[in-house]
Structure formats: C-alpha cells, structure tokens
Amino acid sequence: MNQYRDRRYVFAAAIILxxxxxxxxxxxxxxxxxxxxxYALSNAQSVRTIYPARGLIYDRTGKIMVYNxxxxxxxxxxxxxxxxxxxxxxxxxxxxxxxxRERLSSAKSYSYRVPSVFMKQVSYENAALLQEKMFQFPxxxxxxxxxxxYTSPIASHAxxxxxxxxxxxxxxxxxxxxGDYIGVSGVEKAYEEYLRGQKGKDIFLKDxxxxxxxxxxxxxxxxxxxxxxxxxxxxxxxxxAYGEELMSHYVGSVVALEPKSGxxxxxxxxxxxxxxxxxxRSLGVEFGKLATDTxxxxxxxxxxxxxxxxxxxxTIMGLIGLQEKVITKKTEHHCYYGFYVGNIHTACHxxxxxxxxxxAIQNSCNTYFIxxxxxxxxxxxxxxxxxxxxxxxxxxxxxxFAQSLGIELTNELNGNIPTSDYFNRxxxxxxxxxxxxRSLAIGQGELLATPLQMANMAATIANRGYxxxxxxxxxxxxxxxxxxxxxxxxxxxxxxxxxxxxVDGMDLVINGGAGSTARNAxxxxxxxxxxxxxxxxxxxxxxxxxxxxxxxxxxxxAIAVYVENxxxxxxxxxPIASLMIEKYLTGEVKRTWYENWVKQLIQPVAPARKKxxxxxxxxxNN
Length: 622
Description:
Layout: H1 2-32, H2 35-44, E1 45-50, E2 57-58, E3 64-76, H3 86-93, H4 97-110, E4 116-122, H5 124-132, E5 140-150, H6 156-159, E6 162-164, H7 167-172, E7 181-183, H8 186-190, H9 192-195, E8 200-206, E9 212-215, E10 231-233, H10 237-246, E11 252-258, E12 263-270, H11 283-292, H12 301-304, H13 314-323, E13 338-341, E14 344-347, H14 357-363, H15 366-377, H16 385-398, H17 420-427, H18 451-462, E15 466-468, E16 473-476, E17 489-491, H19 499-511, E18 529-535, E19 543-550, E20 557-563, H20 573-586, H21 592-601
Parallel strand pairs: 2-10
Antiparallel strand pairs: 1-8, 2-3, 3-4, 3-5, 6-7, 8-9, 10-16, 11-12, 11-20, 13-14, 15-17, 18-19, 19-20
C-alpha cells in the first residue's frame, strides 16, 4: 500500500512540474517574447519608408547648381508575395518574364522580410499604371525617390555623383538598405550626412487584399521625414564654366582660390564630363565608358596629378634664401647662358647680367637660384649639407607641400619633397651637395606638387605668409559655421618681411619691361603678380605652368594653371590664367580679341615628342 502511495506522490510531482513548465512557457510567449505579436502586426500593418529629398547645392552667388527630380522604384517584400499575373506585370514594366524571375530571385536572396528594389527608376507613366493595379500584385509597391539634376554641365569633379549603396556601406552603416542612394564622390560624398536627410516612416493597417486602408493609431507611431540640408559652395559658376571652356581642348587643371578665406573659386580638371551622365539607370554604362577613355576624364587632376613645379618654384627658393639670410634682395649673381662648374652645365636663356633677386624672378634665371640653393646648403650654421637641406625642407612643409592640404574631397595626393635620407641612400652619406641636387632649385628633379598645392602656394604669397586650408563649402543650412579647420590660418616659417621682394618680382614678370616672361598676361587697370614655369616631362612634351594672384594689394584671387604637353608657361598657361582673373575681378572679359586668340591657339594635345638619345642637362627657364 505504501508503494502505491509513493507512486501517487511521484505522479503528482510530475504533473505539477509539467504544469509549471507550461506556465513559464506561456508567460514567456505572452509577456517576454513579442515576436509573435510582431508577426501578427506585420500581417496587419504596412510600414512604408519615406525617403527625404536630398539637399540642394548652390554656388557662392546663390545660383542653384544641383537639384532633384522625382524617380520611382518598384519595391518588393518577398514574404508578402502571393500568386499574381506575371504577364501583366511584365507588360506594365516592359520587362521579360525571365527578367522578372531574376529580380525576384535576387530580392529573396537578400531578405524575405526587408524590402528591396525589384526595378529602379521606372517612368512616371509606368509607376502610375502599376499603382492603379497594385491590389493585383501583393508584395510589390511603388517607392518615390529623387535623382540629381544639374543646371549646368560643369564642376563634375567637385560636385561628385550619387550612386546605389554597395555591400560595404550596408555592413558599416545601418541607416542604409539595399537600393538606397549615397554620395560616391566629390561634395556629394564629403557632405553625405548633411545632404541625405533622415528617412521617415508611415504605418498603415492593411485589409485582406494587402492594401493600406488607414493610418495605424492615427499616426502616433509615424516618424517624420527630415529633408537634406542645402549646401552653399565656394565655387563661382561663371568662373568654373569659363575655365572649363578655356581648357576644353587641353589636358590639365586650373585651380582658383580666394586667398584670404581659402575658398575654392574654380576647380577645373580637363578633360571633364557632364555630371548628368552619372545619373539614373545609365550610370553603370556611362561610368564604364568614362573609365575606359584613354584621356581618363574621371581622374581629378586638380588633386591627384603630381607635376614638377618648374620655374614657379623659384619664388619659394627666394623666400627661403631671405629667411635664412644667405641672400638679400640686393644680392647679385652673374649668368652667361647658364650655370657652369667644370663639366656641369645647366642652361639658361639670354638676359641682362648680373641680376638681383627681384630681377632674377622677373627674368626667371636658372643660374641665380642654383646659387641660392648653394648658399642655403653651404650655410655655416649647419654641420652638413644634409642638415641644411632638412631645414630647407621644413620650410616647404610649412607651406603645405609634401602633404595633403585637407580639402573635403577624397583622394587628394601629397606631392613629393624628398628627404635627406633619400639622397643618402642614392649617393651615400656626405657624398652629395648642391651640385648633385641643383635641379631642385629650379623646380625640377624629384619635386612634385599638385595643382591645388600650387594654387595654395600662390595664395600664401598673396597673403604674405599664411594660408587657409582650401575648401569647397561655405555654408551648411541650419549650421552656425563650417568646420573650424577651414577657418584657421596656417602661418609659414617664413617671416612676413621676406615676401615683399618676391611679390615685386612677380609684379615685374607681368608688368615689367624686357626680360619679363609673361607680359601677355597683363590686364589694364589690374596689377597681376605671377610666375611662369615650364616643367620637363619624361613622357612627352613639357608642361606649361603659371601661378598668379591679383590685385597686388588686397588680393582677391590666386590661381594655378597646368597645361600638359604644351611647352612654355607664357604661351598657354599664362593667357588662360589672365583671362580667368579678368573674368572674376571685372565680371566680363573686355579683351575679346585676346580671348579669341587664345581659343584659336588651343589645339588638340600634340603627340609626345621623341627624346634625344643623349640626354643634355639643360632645363627650360620659363
């Protein structure tokens, strides 16, 4: 009898235990776990993302550069799909049944529950027709988005373009979903978080046909959309368009800055392309064409091309010589068709001799600035040429060379100022001197700079000793100010007092008499200060270079022009810079005869010249 009584207790305990387990499970399902509730709600609710209009982009004068137009994507939620008439859907969207199956398969592989793009950027007519018959196609809906439109086919490298997010963006940022758009380059990329705005969402109750019938809880759970913020760029549309017109048959770059603010007035990379090519469904095809173009129009030469500065660098040599007190503005050197030491020869052109510093800049004398380098590297206050060289290099670093300046755009390159260790490795420690590296004195050799750095150099001289990081945005809607980095003055290691003779020499380059190398850049009523350059190019004809700022007092514009494979700076680069300065400062080009001459002068890029079998150590002076 006791045996049965014990069994009864065991059974009772088992029943109580099972009951407790059921109660715990029910409590978890009904109270702790809301997945079933969410599942039920998802069957009764429809959540639609509201995409914000992307922020507009204006030029510095308030003219609109980039705006939006409506686009319509057909979205699909695979879990909600039911049997529908595929033939009619294909007829509405004008696609094949095979294409429809592939699109559905792709959506299912992405997610059964998350919406993805079935077909993007359909016409308004097709979207409207589908919307009328949407009850026949459960799981599909029309999503309104925006695409970029441009008021003028300019500034493609500065503005950038918008494209569909890739998997990398999806993995890194939960804000984005498959089919979303994002800034891929230029300002569109740099200011993506401001331009994109914030998505909203509307929650509706659905009927048995999967159609939205009313707002859920009177919209209390809806999230308001926030449109993107508008941007005001520093670009001058008219100046940008004019620069692109002048460079339309060239390969090269023009960068114009406002010296006192660091604002970019024009950023020209040639050849260029119309930004509306990289919009909409044709983006992939057009990008492929541009990417395979042998002239590489996608390459932003203003930030990424690295050239020798040529004779424009003589201004910097003069500044460092004055700072180190190895020369004064009255220091003279003789020049007889070049620099000679034994069998070492660097050529120069015919000019008066001797020349002081100001005259040497005016006449672009190679011999003078090689002697300046000699004085710098043989300065007795340094223990060796390498130590003196490192000091020389530090001055260049303070001017923004050999480093990215920090403009908002990506892929800005550094240029190159070799270190003393570089020469030690090549020639051996204490086995090199100014003769070994004399080409650096005239902007050749291993020196490399981007057009942006060269324009910044012109701005630094215009400011008599400081620069502000070049930037493309002056105002963000709703923000009190832009990044502090674009307002800070960067003072160079050269005293302000050293800049006077250099500016005077640059004045004479254009406004002086015989020997001046860019008299063709003179503008009546405006004192333009500039310097020509011709950079040797191992791959073909020399590059034509010109830097300038104007007016001489209280400068409003600084500019650098590089024209690849076109020879002397005075022939091609100087006229382009002069016309752009006149256009910006006066609002028009009065020298129409000069403008027409420049445009007639422009020819397609000449084929690369053949190099002589014997390389002569002669360098163009201007």
